[in-house]
Amino acid sequence: MHDxxxxxxxxxxxxxxxxxxxxxxxxxxxxxDPVAMSEWVAARDLDAxxxxxxxxxxxxxxxxxxxxxxxxxxxxxxxxxxxxxxPAGRASRNFRSKRRPLVALLAVVTCLLLAMVLLRSxxxxxxxxxxxxxxxxxxxxxxxxxxxxxxxxxxxxNLSLAAGAHVRTPAxxxxxxxxxxxGLVRVNQQTEFIVHRPEEIELVAGQFWCRAAAxxxxxxxxxxxxNVESSTNYALPKVCLFTCxxxxxxxxxxxxxxxxxxxxxxxxxxxxxxxxxxxxxxxxQSMACSPGGNHELSGPYDRLQATSWQLxxxxxxxxxxxxxxxxxxxxxxxxxxxxVRSFDSGxxxxxxxxxxxxxxxxxxxxxxxxxxxxxxRAMAIVADLAPASTRSDLEVLATDxxxxxxxxxxxALDRISKI
Amino acid sequence: MAxxxxxxxxxxxxxxxxxxxxxxxxxxxxLVALCQSRVGQRADAEELAQEVLLRAIRSFxxxxxxxxxxxxxxxxxxxxxxxxxxxRGRDKRQPLDTPSDRSAPDPAQLAxxxxxxxxxxxxxxxxxxxxxxxxxxxxxxxxxxDEMAGWLGVARATVxxxxxxxxxxxxxxxxSSGGRADAR
Lengths: 419, 184
Prior knowledge:
The complex is a heterodimer of chains A (419) and B (184).
Chain A: H1 9-14, H2 20-32, H3 34-53, H4 61-75, H5 88-96, H6 100-122, E1 129-136, E2 140-143, E3 151-153, E4 159-162, E5 165-168, E6 175-178, E7 184-187, E8 192-197, E9 200-205, E10 207-211, E11 218-223, E12 239-244, E13 249-255, E14 258-263, E15 269-273, E16 277-281, E17 286-289, E18 295-298, H7 303-307, H8 311-314, H9 322-342, H10 345-349, H11 357-364, H12 372-385, H13 391-397, H14 403-417
Parallel strand pairs in A: 9-11
Antiparallel strand pairs in A: 1-4, 1-6, 2-3, 2-5, 5-8, 6-7, 7-10, 8-9, 10-13, 11-12, 13-14, 14-17, 15-16, 17-18
Helix pairs in contact in A: 2-3, 9-11, 9-12, 11-12, 12-14, 13-14
Chain B: H1 6-13, H2 17-39, H3 42-58, H4 69-88, H5 107-125, H6 129-141, H7 145-152, H8 156-176
Helix pairs in contact in B: 1-2, 2-3, 2-4, 2-6, 3-4, 5-8, 6-8, 7-8
């Protein structure tokens, strides 16, 4: 099916010249062909360099029109409007030049019109958006692909980012970026990244967390040496491009020039690079991508701790936001595990019914599955004290694969039903 | 395929200053692309592009049909570039100016990237003018292949071929001269 692609499909993909159908084929080809992927990254890098050295020329429109007016005045005698076959427009302008008040009024109107045109052009509608900076906790700096200077955006809200746009967060800000397919990227402080195209983002410095869209993967590139052989005479790109599977959650960061990916998903995350390279990262483990092209697994990392920097960003969400709820449940589960591990039953029971909330969060967390004894201890207390408000949690636990947990949940439900 | 909207051209010719502003602003990047591919320096190209626009405005009476405005404007630009070479005898191989709107990064960053950027600019200048122009058009005016073909008066396949050739030559030349065609 790849044969249907035009010969220069990499350049066409870069320049937005492929049809939607061809683009899908091109994406598939990139995934299955490491040489094509290498050439794509090299082409994209050259494109970024060219954009940097060839900034868009901008005409100072007001100055130009002023220049045109002054030259026109110098060349046109004011007493001969429309003489000697001049264009109608020029003749009419000469005629108006004798009516100074009207000219002044027209000048003001013209300036207002020009200002409107210029303001409208600020958004650069010709550039297609490949991602949206939805919100931030403070100012961020953006350099769109056609710009050479960073622009400080005080309170970004649904800011469109064109292909090749650079964004960096200062020390006081975090921001969130959504992709067209609803992938999500949360960016920590002092981080710089580039959005290359829909569902492709590059981490330049700092760290971000990302969740791939439910339907298609997210491509993440980081500094490093690509692990592919090139059949061309071009040097290999100095970035590693990874494919994160759909719905996966990963945390990417660069420490001491080493890029690292931490699997945050509850399931193992299979990262792919090119056609024949893949790495399965267990939850909480990380993979380092060193400049030499070595990829080593290490860990474990505390997933909650590793992502807790997002809380100021989540804090801007409504209380029922699923991500915020998930983060809070994770924190509550940690508290519950600490309690059931470090305190005796009497101490926990003395906290009353509300003291069982962290215990229930712990028993429901995937992390508790490897600690059946702690789960049983927690559930024994839950069975006696859980308040009626925890009914929905207990109904889930009543179907737990651990028979003892399920039995104790049913005991709690029986007790609640009699209250 | 007309790049400039004939309706805007018509209004500009009739003396509508707002339309004139739109026409000048829209045409400026592609004129800079044409002029820079002929005269080399960006600053000279920007000055020439403004002069092209001023001459065009003064000569609206000679425009036969608004639909042929693009070709007519190109013709003025080509003549002015020739005049520039005849009258001033500039050295076409002078290094490109740093654009005035370029940001001023910190000194360390500047030192690290200045050489590479300068090398890339020089490699661009070494390309044949027709390859330079299509490259400048693509990056200055964000034109699609069809729009570039319309402006240049060539087939879309020719645009594709020139752009691919320009990029390919740059990658090879940068790679062989120790540039960073492969990295940021």
